[in-house]
Amino acid sequence: MDNHNNIIDNTADMGTGLVITTASKLQLNQIRKWMQFFAILGIVFCVLMLIGSIGLFFAFSNQDAYANMPASSMYSLYLVPIFAVVIIPATVFAFKFSQAMRTALYTSSPERAQDAFKNFRNLFRFIGIFTIVSFVFYIFILIIGVFTKGQLF
After folding, report:
1. In whole angstroms, what is the distance from residue 26 CA to residue 125 CA?
2. Rounded CA gap, 1 and 120, in Å?
3. What is the b/e burial string over 62-72, where b = at least 16 CB atoms within 10 angstroms of the residue's CB?
């Protein structure tokens, strides 16, 4: 917390604020392009996962032959669309970052740069929370597996 306050205090003492050099702008532009690529790729894969999940739901709901399918396979039918929906906000934050950073770089707008970095922060906050929740979920599943001796799955 003290480090955060020092950053704010140092910026106030500089008078003009942070200056972004041409080399830094080029680096930010490369980061922006890659972030946009991964955001679009993420959205496409989320849509494909949702379409595939809907297709599998229809395929498995109409056939009695799949009645003897293991429970773990049935759980995965539910986890794929949930995962796709959960990942969409991360891709949206990444896309918003890339769009705001492009505008900030080409117009030298500090407000758009601030919006871009806000989305960048939100992206990593989301990834951090998702990682923590995933670890808790995995530990929970591991504990259930140990106590049920693997009979539940």
Report:
1. 25
2. 20
3. eeeeeeeeeee
What radius of gyration, in Å, describes the C-alpha atoms of the chain?
A: 22
As a whole number of angstroms, the distance between CA 89 and CA 98 comes to 14
List Cα–Cα distances, 85 to 77, 78, 79, 80, 138, in angstroms.
13, 11, 10, 9, 19
Residue pair 104/112 in contact by the 8 Å Cβ criterion: yes
**What confidence tens digit (pLDDT) does each residue in 65-118 have?**
556 666 566 677 778 888 899 899 999 999 999 999 999 999 989 899 999 999
Q: How many CB atoms lie within 10 A of CB 46?
A: 19
Q: Are the C-beta atoms of residues 29 and 105 closer than 8 Å to each other? A: yes
Which residue in 133, 121, 41 sits closest to 86, CA to CA? 133
Neighbours of 130 (CB within 10 A): 15
The answer to pTM > 0.85 is no
Tokens of 75: 């759980």
